[in-house]
């Protein structure tokens, strides 16, 4: 949006900074809240999409990273470290570059989407591909930060989640109320925790009269919150949420319980269906993990748990260009077309 100053400057009273801190910002946030006519028709609800792929590095992580990096810089850190399934590392790398800090990212080897890896490369991060999953990476990053002079910028760093609350505030500011239901993909569970804190703060201050029910959706192969116990070997096509032991477990359970919401597991097949539907019918290209919120919307609408007539927001957490491999996976090699209108017409079956 024209003139949008970034989340720290947009919500100065709600995002406290250390004294004399100079915000590290790429003017993140202020993302589009787009009505979804096709999904609204399918569900009998008023569905809006919060398009977080429109953030500077293409995911919602920038909302927290601006705050985490501002603190790290103000507190004199020389470098930052994070574990990531890809988006946190892309965001940390970009904001560290902006701040002039060294950045190390620990990612599960072979399990991060190409776009995210290319971002970390271009922003000059030290990329360590770990022979383990995200949960191993997070444990390792936390240990390293505890023992060496390097700042952890995962969402276990509480200021990250303060920044991520801003998405809930933007939605309320724009709708003039809170939605009835909010659908989110859940991996490490920081974001659902942050949204609920954001809505709760607005409710507590009387900015909104009601808070939404929080619907959290996990991939079926990585659904510890649905199962009620950690998953040792999480697996899903939605690599962003391939997390077996979420750091913000308690925050997510609080969000569900206080909001009278739910957790539900979604198969990879249903995630991919929603992924294609969003691109083909709503014109919004997201990465697979992001489509989990919409797959969950459709599942809970079909089984009656989502009341018709509800105002619903689905957060689309990351841009489709993050993961070109999944988009092109089932596309066959195409024959080249000669430079002839008749050949174009024949290929399009116009004639
Ligand atoms: N969607 C996307 C695109 C993500 O990258 C993530 C998390 C989530 C949803 C889930 O959010 O973890 O707060 O529950 N990605 C982290 C990362 C794990 O390392 O980039 P969450």
TrEMBL record:
GO molecular function, one term: pyridoxal phosphate binding
Function: Catalyzes the gamma-elimination of phosphate from L-phosphohomoserine and the beta-addition of water to produce L-threonine.
Pfam annotation, one family: PALP
In-chain residues carrying the UniProt-annotated modification N6-(pyridoxal phosphate)lysine: 61
Reactions this protein catalyses: O-phospho-L-homoserine + H2O = L-threonine + phosphate
EC number per UniProt: 4.2.3.1
Keyword Acetylation: no
PROSITE patterns linked: DEHYDRATASE_SER_THR
Protein name per its UniProtKB record: Threonine synthase
Xref: InterPro entries: Ser/Thr_Dehydratase, Ser/Thr_deHydtase_PyrdxlP-BS, Thr_synthase-like, Thr_Synthase_bac/arc, TrpB-like_PALP, TrpB-like_PALP_sf
Keywords: Amino-acid biosynthesis, Lyase, Pyridoxal phosphate, Threonine biosynthesis
Cross-link (Isoglutamyl lysine isopeptide (Lys-Gln) (interchain with Q-Cter in protein Pup)), chain numbering: 143
Tryptophan synthase beta chain-like PALP domain mapped to chain residues: 24-318
Pathways involved: Amino-acid biosynthesis; L-threonine biosynthesis; L-threonine from L-aspartate: step 5/5
Organism: Herbihabitans rhizosphaerae
Family that this chain belongs to: Belongs to the threonine synthase family.
Swiss-Prot/TrEMBL cofactor(s): pyridoxal 5'-phosphate
Gene3D superfamilies tied to this protein: 3.40.50.1100
Xref: SUPFAM superfamilies: Tryptophan synthase beta subunit-like PLP-dependent enzymes
Residues engaged in binding pyridoxal 5'-phosphate: 87, 187-191, 317
Swiss-Prot/TrEMBL GO biological process terms: isoleucine biosynthetic process; L-serine catabolic process; L-threonine catabolic process; threonine biosynthetic process
Top EC class for this record: lyase
